[in-house]
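Model it.
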Amino acid sequence: MAQNLTNPPGWVGDTDALKRDFVFKDFVDAFGFMARVALLAEKADHHPQWLNVYNRVSIVLTTHDAGNRVTDRDVALAIAINGLMEPEF
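Modeled.
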């Protein structure tokens, strides 16, 4: 597990969690994004905490096996999630 990790673009946090809020055109776009994130998370065997309300998705990444600390697994998933976004995000 890495230490002194740098937050990926758009993500805020500290040693306990990385967080990012996403806003979409509507519920369908938000839900589609969540489905794409779910596939990434399952492949990485690293699952986010998240909340969806209509067109908004809030994601929190932390590694429970590391005592709820941010590890390289969280950073890697955040970078992968960023890769799903269009340039305007």
